[in-house]
Amino acid sequence: MEIQLLFLLTLAISFIYGVHSTVFTIKNNCPYTIAPATLTGSGTSVSTGFELQPQASNSINTPAPWSGRVWARFGCSNDGGSYSCSSGDCGSGQVECNGAGASPPATLVEFTLSDASSTDFYDVSLVDGFNLPVSVVPQGGGCPTTDCPVDINASCPSELAVKDGSGGTVGCKSACVAFNKPEYCCSGDHNTPETCPPTNYSQFFKNLCPKAYSYAYDDKTSTFTCHTGNDYLITFCP
Ligand SMILES: *[C@@H]1O[C@H](CO)[C@@H](O)[C@H](O)[C@H]1NC(C)=O
Ligand SMILES: CC(=O)N[C@H]1CO[C@H](CO)[C@@H](O)[C@@H]1O
To answer: pTM for this structure?
Structure first.
């Protein structure tokens, strides 16, 4: 009897381990409503969009292995029955992005979650520009925090700034998004780390957010790892 029970317990534990999932808790610390969104790159698709009032949070269970990104929209309205946002919009016409990505500029939080007992990778990316400050704090395990805690809109060079209808800056494009040149996008004959060094524009972002990706080959100072099995708190306007 006891041996059977032990067997069943072992089976239950390995089943639970086999479907390990990571919890992303997404918190809105901004003084206005935001609409976080996710885009799954590989793995099971999770909730693709929802609104958060100031100080509200929402948890998303993400079965590992998974890779994808999280960002947040703001300045959203449902005028004429179609949902759209002045920053980070995904063009779906709904609160859910349904597999559509952010229209740049948007601050991206990127994850690659492993299913085995190995390593998760995460970063904050400004490669597509900036729209909101964010922090990523692994819950437990002594893993490093990464963030872009500064409102870059406030100091965005005019040639990169995106304005809303009333003239407020609602995003700051990367030089790649603004000028679409190989030396800024690390494309064409600039598609290696050697031929695509930092530029004065990527350095502008790096100076404000030293832990975030400021251009495509910014890996060394911008990718963070944690052993698999941790949960993550993602706070907008930390
Ligand atoms: C980068 O350099 C270009 C060309 O010299 C200049 O026009 C631009 O203002 C600089 N941008 C920043 C953010 O320093
Ligand atoms: C300087 C500036 O305009 N910053 C803005 C960045 O975006 C947020 C959200 O709309 C505004 O509140 C800031 O004023």
So the answer is: 0.90
Q: Which atom of ligand 2 is nearest to the CA of 155?
A: 1
C-alpha torsion sign, points 127, 28, 168, 89: positive
- Per-residue pLDDT tens over the stretch 52-77: 999 999 999 999 999 999 999 999 99
pLDDT for 79 equals 86
Give me the architecture of the 20-236 domain, per CATH. Sandwich (2.60)
CB 56 within 8 A of CB 94: no
Going from N- to C-terminal start, the domains of the chain cover 20-236
Q: Tell me the CA–centroid distance for residue 184 and ligand 1, in Å.
A: 12
**CA neighbor of 31 nearest in space, from 65, 86, 74:** 74
Parallel, antiparallel or unpaired: strands 231-236 and 21-28: parallel
To test ligand 2's pocket by mutation, which of 29, 89, 160, 170 has the most ligand atoms within 8 angstroms of CB? 170
Arithmetic mean of pLDDT, 141-167: 95
